[in-house]
Write a structure and sequence with these properties.
Length: about 290
């Protein structure tokens, strides 16, 4: 089950995801200079009043006269409902869809809502650091040539040290196209994982001043890996499958940069220990 969390000052709402309501249509037409195709309809339960669309193309927000905002993803699936005051007559949205602005015409009030989308992340096949049965999963979409990914590493070490029994780190590969060696490095780290040395290989890759083709065999030798097996795994279709699985999931989630971090499916907005600990504490409170 997915959830949509809307945070209003003093109020925290967790909203369950509803089922898809998008209906396809084949209506089309054209005149001298314009051609159009009606792609579908969203049958709403209440009369629509206003509409906002995040610039990243991921979410649409529809204000209805039923005193609620309906949230849809780009596939036309209803993600949740946010209740609003009866006087709200117009809405606007920040570019990434993480802040909503509400205009209440009855008392000349502008309100701002912070919106978090809690998503499902598959970590069943991901390298894990920490206790496997820890209740809080910090999933990190990373790139071995990303300087910001390297800078954030101490944050994860600190959070594991402070939460040894309750937090685990799950690594997800998302090599950016601008980094030539990020993809090969991801495959090499996955190959090392076949011999139980993912995190050691991970650390050595980030310690490299510049990753080259020679880096992989050098690190494998340093870590005492079986070189023949490592080279075989490096070319294995299984490694490509694992890498493609991670990148496809990142694309589906709308991730465009690294590092991107989720705490039990909730995106970390600020790479600070205080914010990370706050999200962890929220998750642990749910289980107490």
């Amino acid at each position: 089950m997915k959830y949509l969390k809307a945070i209003i000052p003093g109020i925290s709402l967790m909203i369950a995801v509803a089922s898809p309501v998008f209906a396809a249509s084949v209506t089309s037409g054209q005149d001298d200079r314009v051609q159009w195709n009606k792609l579908g309809d969203l049958q709403l339960q209440d009369k629509p009043v206003d509409f906002a669309y995040s610039l990243d193309g991921n979410y649409a927000f529809i204000l209805t006269n039923g005193d609620q905002i309906l949230v849809y993803n780009q596939q036309g699936k209803l993600q949740g409902r946010i209740p609003v005051d009866a006087g709200v007559s117009a809405i606007d949205i920040s570019p990434r869809g993480d802040f909503l602005y509400l205009i209440d015409s009855t008392d000349n009030r502008l309100s701002m809502l912070s919106v978090d989308f809690v998503v499902d992340i598959d970590t069943s096949d991901s390298p894990i650091k920490g206790k496997v049965d820890a209740p809080v999963t910090v999933a990190v979409f990373s790139d071995f040539e990303c300087t910001y990914c390297k800078k954030i590493l101490p944050l994860f070490e600190q959070v594991l040290k402070e939460n040894p029994d309750s937090v685990k780190i799950a690594f997800k590969n998302f090599p950016l196209k601008m980094h030539e060696m990020a993809g090969p490095a991801a495959l090499a780290a996955l190959a090392a994982n076949q011999q139980g040395k993912f995190w050691e290989f991970h650390d050595q890759l980030f310690a490299e001043e510049k990753i080259t083709d020679d880096s992989f065999s050098k690190i494998a030798t340093k870590l005492g890996l079986n070189q023949d097996r490592f080279n075989e795994d490096l070319k294995s279709p299984l490694m490509f499958y694992k890498l493609n699985k991670d990148t496809a999931e990142a694309t589906k989630l709308g991730i465009t940069g690294t590092p991107t971090v989720f705490v039990n499916g909730k995106k970390l907005k600020e790479p600070k220990i205080e914010e990370l600990q706050r999200l962890i504490a929220e998750e642990l409170a749910k289980k107490s």
